[in-house]
Amino acid sequence: MPGPLTEAQIADYDSQGFLLASSLFDADEIELLRRSAKEDKRLDDHAFGRDDGEGGTVRLSVWNHPGNGIYGAFARCNRLVQRAEQLLRDEPYHYHSKMIMKDARVGGAWAWHQDYGYWYGNGVLTPNLVSCFIAVDPATRENGCLQVIRGSHACGRVHHQLTGQQAGADPERVAEILKRFELVHVEMNPGDVLFFHSNLLHRSDQNHSENPRWSMICCYNAKSNDPYKESHHPRYTPLDRLPDSAVREIGGQRFEDTDVHQNDSQGQSMAWLDPNRDASATSLKPTSKDANN
Ligand SMILES: O=C(O)CCC(=O)C(=O)O
């Protein structure tokens, strides 16, 4: 089992705004997640789509509490939570998780944005949050891997506006940032995890390939950054950390339990997000282009 992050890795994260951990989950573990997700009707039932402003639609499901099932085993396992703690330098709590279902041929694009650009309006005072992007399928240039701008978290929060149904960072500013900072395509294998700062600019292309690009993203906020007001994502809630072995144990049980799809006891505790309550993006002002339409 991989140990904690080294000082050098933490320093890398601080300067680049992201850190790629290769094979943080092994092939068996990630296959448990992949199979669970692809067979999970609840993900479809709770999925919502957002117009990507490029003629496609992004599809995702979001839940606020990690729960006791396989998704919770990933979000609560020591491997992720310990790293989040090291990067936040504070006790992490689960802010939400989501499954990004970027399907073959039709998966939509994500505009340049910062997660903190979405979350600022939720009463979160500092950008001391970290997102952990777990590759469920291989993520390549062809199927729309994540793109990041190295070091862009240092630019601070960029103004975000709504284009179509997606919030994006001010395009003029992003264009200038791209002249000075490096664009990185983060190609990943299943089980790799990208940790990234909430002010890191990131986007992804549509998926025109024959291969799906699903990923689960677990987002953690620092305890000391407890939002000052209620929103559609939780305020500080202690995280019940699990040993790393829980991924295999809970994932294995899922497939032994033939009633799991009918008996949704694992899902009850997750607080799936109703898309109509997801005001992170939609509370933003539309661009003048949209306003004229
Ligand atoms: O999966 C992607 O390509 C991007 C997802 C993302 O940026 C987000 O959920 O905020």
Automatic annotation (TrEMBL):
Database matches in PANTHER family = ECTOINE DIOXYGENASE, PHYTANOYL-COA DIOXYGENASE DOMAIN CONTAINING 1
Tell me the Pfam families matching this sequence.
Answer: PhyH (PF05721)
In terms of domain of life, where is this protein from?
Bacteria
GO terms for MF:
2-oxoglutarate-dependent dioxygenase activity; iron ion binding
Q: Where is this region: Disordered?
A: 252-293
Q: Where is the composition biased (Polar residues)?
A: 279-293
Cofactor(s) it depends on = Fe(2+)
Q: What is this protein called?
A: Probable L-proline 4-hydroxylase
